[in-house]
């Protein structure tokens, strides 16, 4: 959601160390931006913390975001920070409710850029149906940061039909990915490397909580595990899962959904798309009996149009992920051995 909110007229164009001092300049920055843009009854209390009530079992998650560049095709660091924590909660089977939001800003950041990030945060919160209720702002010296880092933490109530745990996975379960892989990582890399294609590669950053909630309504405990393949890509997530459950995973390269331009970009840069980060995808391990219905329901959701069944859990080759290549051979899939794409999220 791209909100149209005019930036207020201010007597400063860039953020300085004084804006992190806790004094007059800090209040000017917060009053002219954060509190106005993200206003809600709990945040408006301006207390050191947030007081609220949640019912039943809860989930809690936290994440830090230091993507470079901070503006990229399809989004910016602000909405990425909201969507990332919202999605982490959704993977727990939770309905996200409240977020904390903390900025570490390098002096010299343009106020216009900070405003654009705030507006993206507001839009992402409104789409996800969550509120920022507490936070913090710090400013560091020039050269001690990289424009802006953001931390978000979130809480939510567990869906009444959710029972999400790797312990529930069994042989025969089907593995479903919700959409095209590697789009976020290659959107970042296409900017860094100056790659140009017939159409722009866009990040897939989006909130998934409404999609997950709807699937839980329909399929409940038949959904055994949900996880989002961010850093390390789908390969790392699948390998980690296989190790944790002491079962094997069979998959086929031909079943992996990927946009043609993303695949071309990966090839140009010598990157394997199964290790490239995603920000708007999830992987679901579901009971085989509901896999086709689950996939059909996902195809009707705007976040699942390209969803596919990509693998099966097996008792063979415990703790190993075996992928059949597009030309028929098989290989063992390992975790990402190092940092393939730094500063990707």
UniProtKB/TrEMBL annotation:
Record-annotated PurM-like N-terminal domain positions: 47-157
List each copy of the PurM-like C-terminal domain by range. Answer: 170-321
* Family annotation (InterPro entries): HypE (IPR011854), PurM-like_C_dom (IPR010918), PurM-like_C_sf (IPR036676), PurM-like_N (IPR016188), PurM-like_N_sf (IPR036921)
Which CDD domains does its entry note? HypE
Question: According to its UniProt record, which protein family does this protein belong to?
Answer: Belongs to the HypE family.
NCBIfam families with a match to the protein in the record: hypE
What this protein is called in its record is: Hydrogenase expression/formation protein HypE
């Amino acid at each position: 959601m791209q909100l149209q909110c005019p930036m207020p007229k201010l007597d400063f164009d860039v953020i300085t160390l004084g804006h992190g001092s806790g004094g007059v300049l800090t209040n000017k920055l917060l009053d002219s931006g954060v509190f106005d843009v993200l206003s809600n009854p709990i945040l408006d209390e301006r207390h050191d913390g947030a007081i609220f009530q949640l019912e039943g079992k809860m989930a809690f998650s936290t994440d830090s975001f230091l993507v470079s560049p901070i503006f990229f095709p399809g989004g910016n660091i602000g909405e990425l920070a909201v969507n990332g924590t919202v999605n982490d909660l959704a993977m727990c089977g939770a309905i996200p409710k409240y977020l904390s939001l903390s900025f570490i800003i390098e002096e010299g950041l343009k106020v216009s850029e900070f405003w654009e990030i705030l507006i993206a945060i507001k839009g992402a919160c409104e789409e996800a149906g969550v509120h920022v209720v507490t936070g913090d702002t710090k400013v560091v010296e020039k050269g001690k940061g990289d424009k802006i880092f953001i931390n978000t933490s979130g809480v939510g109530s567990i869906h009444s039909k959710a029972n999400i745990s790797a312990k529930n996975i069994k042989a025969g379960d089907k593995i479903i990915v919700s959409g095209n892989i590697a789009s976020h990582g290659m959107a970042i890399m296409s900017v860094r490397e100056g790659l140009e294609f017939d159409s722009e590669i866009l990040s897939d950053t989006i909130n998934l909580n409404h999609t997950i909630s709807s699937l839980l309504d329909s399929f409940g405990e038949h959904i055994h595990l949900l996880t989002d393949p961010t850093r390390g890509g789908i390969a790392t997530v699948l390998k980690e899962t296989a190790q944790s459950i002491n079962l094997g995973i069979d998959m086929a390269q031909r079943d992996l959904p990927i946009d043609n331009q993303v695949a071309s970009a990966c090839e140009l840069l010598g990157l394997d798309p199964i290790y490239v980060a995603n920000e708007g995808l999830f992987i679901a391990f579901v009971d085989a009996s509901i896999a086709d219905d689950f996939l059909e329901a996902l195809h009707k959701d705007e976040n699942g149009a390209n969803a596919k069944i990509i693998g099966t859990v097996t008792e063979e080759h415990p703790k190993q992920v075996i992928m059949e290549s597009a030309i028929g051979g098989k290989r063992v899939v390992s975790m990402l051995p190092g940092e393939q794409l730094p500063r990707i999220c």
